[in-house]
Amino acid sequence: MADPTVLFEVKDKVATITLNRPQALNSFTMELMEATGQALTRCQDPAIRAVVLTGTGRAFSAGADVREMASVLGAQGPDGLVRSIRRLVDAVHWLVVLPMRQLPKPIIGAINGAAVGGGLGLALACDIRIASEDARLVMAFPGIGASADSSTMYMLPRLIGQARALEMYFLNEHVDARRAMELGLFSAVVPPAELTAKADELAHKLASGPTLAYARAKQLVNDTWDWSLREHLLSEGDAITESSGTADFREGIRAFVEKRPPLFKGQ
Questions:
Q1: For residues 86 and 104, is the Cβ–Cβ distance under 8 A?
Q2: What values do phi and psi take at 131, rounded to 5?
Q3: For the chain, which end, N or C, has fewer CB atoms within 10 Å of the first or last residue's CB respectively?
Q4: Which domain holds residue 75?
Q5: Strands 107-111 and 188-190
Q6: Could you tell me if 185 and 243 lie in one domain?
Q7: Full-model pTM
């Protein structure tokens, strides 16, 4: 039996989703995207309070499989290739990227290697990214005459600014882990052997936090990209009022007064 294309594990309130096509650098297929989407759906479980997304082997993800594109082009012609690309892109966008952004809990990208093309988009859709020293980011799309997908040109300008985002696209150069950290794309860069432990440490810290408050904060950040300041202030007021009615908020207040660490339960 073939290995599953996505591995899913839950331990101590943390779910780890691992893209598992190392022989193809975890490049996108319909099967991989559908399995990733199913894993994200499982992360809605209230018992899961933080998520790690990573890859097996030497790549986080190489994005769409260009060799497979060439095969489809040869077998089905230009129209068949267009239909195939549309189907795959829709799966990436609606089964994976949007659910990642809407998941009401933190997602940590543990970027173990190259994040290329659509794989870069998946990395950017995470809430926090930490990386191995072996990681590198590559736009790749212009190299095959393509515009970007997988939320890349939505997320990247918001993270590093419009000019740098267009520079990354136009020049299509490799960005190594240290440079990516300087740009603000990574929170930490660690030796490859330490990445899993670092990601687990951060995930467990977040999994012990005020999950419902995190969810509202993540939604507020998402909403700022579409709303005016007035709309945002109204939403912030609603969100913190709702937060103040949670058990975690009450625990936080008590812990502050009692000068002890809070014991949040995600309630």
A1: no
A2: -140, 150
A3: N
A4: 6-207
A5: unpaired
A6: no
A7: 0.91
